[in-house]
Amino acid sequence: MTAASTPHAEPAMDVDEFRDAAHQLVDWMADYMDTIESRPVRAPTLPGAVLEQIPEAAPESGEPFARLFDDFQRIILPAMTHWQHPSFFAYFPANTSPPSILAEMLTATLAAQCMSWQTSPAATELEQTMMDWLRQMIGLPAGFEGVIQDSASSATLCALLTARERATGDRVNERGFVGETALAVYGSTECHSSIEKDVTIAGIGRRQLRKIAVDENYAMVPAALEAAIEADRAAGLVPACVVAAIGTTGSSAIDPLAAIADICRRHGVWLHVDAAWAGSALILPDYRWMIDGIEHADSFVFNPHKWLLTNFDCSAYFVRDPDALLRTLSILPDYLKTREGQRVHDYRDWGVPLGRRFRALKLWFVIRSYGVRGLQDLIRGHIAMAERLAGEIAAADDFEVLAPVPLALICFRYRPKGLDEEDRIDRLNEALVERINDSGTAYLTHTRLAGRYAIRFSIGQTTTAQHHVDAAWRRVRATARGLIEAPAS
To answer: Tens of pLDDT along 29-41?
Structure first.
């Protein structure tokens, strides 16, 4: 077969067609952001509804973009939950902003694989700078170095792997756990579920995760932590890592970091701080009390993709000893060696994946577009809305706040006068959440605190204003009181 006759794929879209389609999409994107409030917050879709509309096999021939976009609007969009809706009060926010979206468009166009300095010098050096900007913005001491991970779960896995190697003299990476003493990891009973997943991935084992008791504010009890560490040492185990939470998912509890750091320092245990959501609030100097003692931590993570207007995924992971991280994760086959060597950062060695996206660009666009003061104003506004709502809930004679509200998450429940049966109260609140969510007017989630069903109301989307919070609270009250008049079975 000659070169002239070599078969090749025809482009599905030439540059002119791409330009036309891109203009159409940008117009649609702007309209979507402008009209998002007209959509139901949570997708009103039954399981299998999308599957039924998509062919079971790929098409043999290419299809025009107009048909693809039509199917996107007809099949996909109605089954999407709209995370950027101003009445999205579920989970924690995953907010975004126009500058971040524009940066993502550029990142997708460049399509760079930023695994090393040489594969994209600008991506590496911008990431170095952005991580130091963030370090300064949230008040971490000099000496911490950062890297962008995809999520706090991945960052915590890196911390546990590094702690594992430090606790075993770097032996597990070489020979596995054969002949090693069992390790132990510690987190509060309110710690994130990713900790449990990470100890299994790291090979430490779920049985070696110690869930430490919490106080009346759902924060870890330092005395209980120290007792657990001492008990494990007496039993022949090696305490390897403590994960302290700054803003737990269940209730936004703040673990007492200074006391925990002192225990870790005295016992030689790695201290990792999980501030995935609450860490963004550290850009407000008056909230830096949350990390008193951080100078003694070994690693720290927070997610700008939660509460700092930066599209998912963008998780900021900081370490005091980068060499320990590199010893744990660096693999250098010949095909990855470059002439720059140790003169540059090769971020492929700072996390689990070899491949890396150019995430620093959207941080750069966001921070420069809003400035530190603009980001501070946004977060301060969300906290103020939460404080006001918590006060209104506490003042209502048939509702109660179930946990402190240090930031922008309120945990509460409906408790009608004279109703003391906990199972019945739980069922009422579960029905309340489902009716609110099914209505499409707002989206809430739940947790359990001290065994009680608690409604979570998380404020943090980019365009959420006071009137959105007020409207959701009015609907909660009206729906709840309707339930007690016609209780769910």
So the answer is: 999 999 999 999 9
Q: Over 90: is that where the pLDDT of 13 sits?
A: no
Q: What percent of the chain has pLDDT over 90?
A: 85
SS3 content of the chain, % helix, strand, coil (to 5): 50, 15, 35
Give the chain's radius of gyration (CA, Å): 25
End-to-end CA distance of the chain: 74
Q: What span, in angstroms and rounded, lies between the C-alpha atoms of 129 and 320?
A: 17
Burial status of residue 44 (CB atoms within 10 A of its CB: 0-12, 13-18, 19 or more): middle
Q: Which of 316, 335, 357 is the C-terminal boundary of a domain?
A: 357
Provide the whole-model pTM.
0.92
DSSP string, 49-107: TTGGGS-SS--SS---HHHHHHHIIIIIGGG---TTSTTB-SSS-----HHHHHHHHHH
Give CA–CA dist 68/265, Å, rounded. 58
What is the rounded CA–CA span in Å between residue 66 and residue 69? 5
Give a yes or no: residue 421 inside a domain. yes
Q: Which two tokens stand for residue 223?
A: 């005395």
- Give me the domain span that covers residue 212: 113-357
Q: Which one, of 274, 332, 329, lies nearest residue 306 by Cα?
A: 274
Contacts of 370 (CB under 8 A, 6+ apart): 97, 99, 309, 378
Q: Does a structural domain hold residue 471?
A: yes
Q: How far is CA 229 from CA 181, 223, 274, 328, in A?
A: 15, 10, 20, 24
CA dihedral 192, 197, 200, 202 (to 10 degrees): -80
Distance from C-alpha of 325 to C-alpha of 226, rounded to nearest angstrom: 26
